């Protein structure tokens, strides 16, 4: 028989000292065992005193890790009176601990200011610290901010070097709460031909990424900043089109479809409208898809608007139309209001004539009252127009 197992020991009671530290505290930052120097104690006790960077010589790293100390260094670095010698003085001390400061809750801001306001050689040297650590920094709460700032100010060669370290890790970064911001910054700041690997990572994954809180943002950045490189983004657009019925109804995907309708090439605008317009009533009654229907009418051609409107005004066998249903719906009534606003004069008269016989009925519905209010507002504006 197997030997008897020793009784399982209960987990040790958590002492007050072992409790989760308060966010931003010295313990939370891992500084609890680092005693403050006399200068730091003096600084914290005499905040009213005017402190200069020269006063911090030999203590730049310690002050960078302190909330008020970090703010002091930041203010001085971005000030117009800060000399190149003072910037070099800060950099010479901070550079030795640069990687650690990049992931520090307060130190990261000092590194960002050195990227932004430091000398050209400072940016170049800090870029060498980032090299080999881009992925880890990208996924870290404070490190991702440093990478974003770096991408804004370093030269194209260093930008491309930074981005290249994310090759093979794009999807992981896109789905990460920190990493997605870095991928967006790469798309915004680096020439598209240098980050084609980002777009290629999306191919075959567009639907899954478009319905993700972070993924939908990155797709919109790709469509926005690579719009002149049609050959790069056409596979992305094709996948959006193939999945447009799913995306239009999704809480995140609908934004991607709206983006194409607002900013996309006419070819894709027309293709989306053609695929969705037969479902206008159902989509208009959907919490998320209703926004897409509004954009279809807004950015569609005159022919598209005419077809959509004809479908909505068509009288069914029971004497009702799609527009009747929409006017009483909690989401679709907003679509009707938007259509009234965007319609040309002839279309608007057609809509109002269709609505007038049902005004008494509409007054009994909360959402119907919105439609009546919109029509009355337009009527008042039209009466006042000739007198202006």
- Major beta sheet, specifics? none
Number of helical regions: 27
Give the H and E element order: HHHHHHHHHHHHHHHHHHHHHHHHHHH
- Fraction in beta strands: under 5%
Low-confidence stretches: 4-19
> Helix/strand-derived class?
mainly alpha
The whole-number mean of residue pLDDT values reads: 89
Spatial separation of the terminal alpha carbons = 101 Å
- Tertiary shape: elongated
Please tally the β strands and state the result: 0
Roughly how much helix do the residues carry, as a percent range?
55-70%
Rg from C-alpha positions?
30 Å
Furnish the topology, listing elements before pairings.
Blueprint: H1 38-45, H2 60-64, H3 67-78, H4 84-94, H5 98-102, H6 107-117, H7 120-130, H8 134-138, H9 143-153, H10 156-164, H11 170-174, H12 179-189, H13 196-202, H14 206-210, H15 215-225, H16 230-242, H17 244-248, H18 253-263, H19 266-276, H20 280-284, H21 289-299, H22 302-313, H23 322-327, H24 332-342, H25 345-355, H26 359-362, H27 366-384
Helix pairs in contact: 3-6, 6-9, 9-12, 12-15, 15-18, 18-19, 18-21, 21-24, 24-25, 24-27
């Amino acid at each position: 028989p197997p030997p008897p197992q020793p009784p399982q020991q209960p987990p040790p009671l958590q002492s007050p000292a072992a409790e989760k530290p308060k966010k931003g505290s010295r313990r939370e930052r891992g500084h609890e065992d680092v005693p403050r120097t006399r200068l730091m104690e003096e600084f914290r006790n005499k905040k009213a005193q005017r402190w200069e960077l020269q006063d911090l010589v030999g203590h730049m790293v310690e002050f960078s890790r302190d909330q008020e100390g970090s703010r002091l260094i930041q203010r001085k670095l971005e000030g117009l009176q800060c000399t190149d010698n003072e910037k070099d003085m800060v950099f010479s001390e901070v550079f030795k601990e640069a990687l650690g400061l990049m992931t520090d809750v307060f130190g990261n801001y000092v590194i960002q200011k050195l990227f932004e306001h430091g000398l050209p050689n400072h940016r170049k040297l800090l870029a060498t610290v980032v090299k080999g650590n881009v992925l880890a920094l990208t996924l870290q709460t404070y490190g991702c901010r440093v990478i974003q700032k770096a991408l804004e100010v370093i030269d194209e060669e260093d930008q491309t070097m930074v981005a290249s370290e994310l090759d093979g890790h794009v999807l992981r970064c896109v789905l990460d709460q920190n990493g997605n911001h870095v991928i967006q910054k790469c798309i915004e700041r680096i020439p598209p031909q240098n980050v084609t690997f980002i777009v290629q990572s999306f191919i075959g994954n567009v639907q899954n990424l478009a319905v993700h809180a972070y993924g939908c943002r990155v797709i919109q950045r790709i469509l926005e900043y690579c719009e002149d490189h049609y050959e790069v983004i056409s596979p992305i657009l094709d996948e959006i089109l193939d999945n447009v019925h799913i995306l239009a109804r999704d809480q995140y995907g609908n934004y991607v479809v709206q983006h194409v309708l607002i900013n996309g090439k006419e070819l894709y605008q027309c293709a989306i409208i053609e695929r969705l317009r037969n479902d206008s009533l159902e989509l208009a009654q959907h919490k998320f898809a209703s926004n897409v229907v509004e954009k279809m009418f807004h950015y569609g051609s005159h022919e598209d608007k005419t077809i959509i409107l004809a479908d909505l005004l068509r009288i069914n066998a029971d004497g009702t139309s799609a527009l009747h249903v929409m006017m009483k719906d909690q989401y679709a009534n907003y679509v009707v209001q938007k259509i009234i606003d965007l319609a040309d004069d002839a279309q608007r008269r057609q809509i109002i004539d269709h609505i007038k016989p049902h005004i008494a009925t509409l007054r009994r519905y909360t959402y119907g009252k919105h439609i009546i209010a919109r029509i009355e507002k337009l009527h008042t504006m039209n009466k006042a127009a000739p007198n202006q």
